[in-house]
Amino acid sequence: MTSRKTYHHGDLRQSVLAAALDVITAEGPGALSLRDLARRAGVSHAAPAHHFKDRAGLLTAIAAEGYDLLAAALAGTSELRERGVRYVRFATDHPAHFQVMFQPELLRTDDPDLVAAKKRASAELRAGVADLPDVPDARAAGIAAWSLAHGFATLLLTRNITAALGDQGPEEYFRSLTGLLFTGQLATESRN
Fold first, then answer.
1. Are 166 and 141 in contact (CB under 8 A)?
2. If pLDDT is split at 50, 70 and 90, which confidence band does 46 have?
3. Across residues 79-98, what is the average pLDDT?
């Protein structure tokens, strides 16, 4: 008598997402293959398609998860500088999500879960500038703040500023950087 061993995967969706995040962290989103991810998860090559349909679906799920994680990371503080620090921390804690989130050409940008997650993250980003005093253009201030945090995080993840950090951690360095910029701006304004 031959016994046939059946295989049941506990949470295929989460296993595929975790494997995809590992691949993206190591090799970038261009290296993703559903067939390879199925092999890593120990399931048939067609199994991941039941959850994600295709590569774009998988990347969209990763981006939506990333925006939800970002919204959660930004919540809980109203201080703009600390929101920037949390943005940088999010990028360093979730580099694969960060890489995928800001590449709309890889995503199904009309996906309802992605749209909702982006909306939550955007609301948290905007909340950081809502309470700033004497800001004539809150939208421009928000874009400026986001550009600073996003640019710093991107330079950090691509190892373009590693040497500049010296012994300082990225969060401490970002606080110093924003302090330097905003202190300089205030000094200039007070002279006028």
1. no
2. confident
3. 96
* Interatomic CA distance for residues 51 and 72, integer angstroms: 25
CATH number of the CATH domain containing 46:
1.10.10
Cβ neighbours of 91 (radius 10 Å):
24
For residue 23, give every residue at least 6 positions away whose Cβ sits within 8 Å of its Cβ, in sequence order, or none. 31, 32, 36, 37
Q: How far is it, in rounded angstroms, from Cα 182 to Cα 184?
A: 5
Looking at residue 192, what is its pLDDT? 43
Q: Is the pLDDT confidence value at 138 over 60? A: yes
Q: Based on the domain organization, do 45 and 22 belong to the same domain? A: yes
- Domain membership of residue 126 (yes or no) is yes
For helices 55-74 and 80-93, angle between their N-to-C axes, nearest 10 degrees: 140
Q: In three state form, how does the secondary structure of 104-116 look?
A: HHHCCCCCHHHHH
What does pTM read for this prediction? 0.86
User: What average pLDDT is seen over the chain?
Assistant: 88
| Closest CA relative to residue 134, chosen from 77, 190, 179 | 190
Whether residues 110 and 180 share a domain: the answer is yes
| Total number of domains constituting the chain | 2
**Contacts by residues 1-8 (CB-CB < 8 Å, ≥ 24 positions apart):** 7/42, 7/43
Whether the per-residue pLDDT at 182 is higher than 80: the answer is: no
